[in-house]
Write a structure and sequence with these properties.
Number of strands: 0
Shape: globular
Structural class: mainly alpha
Number of helices: 6
Distance between the termini: 31 Å
Strand content: under 5%
């Protein structure tokens, strides 16, 4: 699955096309999906389309399960696995650009955690 940043920037479509894979949608269809997201966020009172706004939107849904990938929190564009590839894409081999010890200091992680806490999805030890 594409990361949020890769999806938003249509990076996933470009990578698939460059590898000769079916992108699954056109740029025009993606533009429509982005517009639908923008409208949903605005309807929810969120004025930006960044990942923190999306996390806040998701945190407020009635879903009992919510999972956010670290790649999304860190704003990475490349997806971890690209189905349909073996050697063309470094599937499941990418390292995060931040060490485990430095993750806690990442502002994006704090923002995502705040979004979860504000919706009653926080965890305290």
């Amino acid at each position: 699955m594409a990361t949020f940043a890769g999806w938003r920037d249509q990076h996933d479509l470009a990578v698939k096309r460059a590898l000769g894979l079916d992108a699954g949608e056109t740029g025009e269809q993606r533009h429509g999906a982005l517009e639908a997201l923008r409208q949903a966020l605005q309807h929810h009172g969120l004025q930006t389309e960044d990942f923190t706004a999306v996390a806040r939107y998701l945190a407020d849904t009635p879903s009992r399960l919510l999972v956010i990938s670290m790649e999304d929190v860190l704003g990475l564009r490349d997806q971890v696995n690209l189905p349909g590839t073996t050697n063309e894409h470094p599937n499941w081999r990418r390292r995060l650009p931040v060490s485990l010890e430095d993750l806690k200091a990442q502002p994006a992680l704090a923002s995502a955690a705040d979004a979860m806490r504000s919706a009653g999805r926080g965890f305290s030890a």
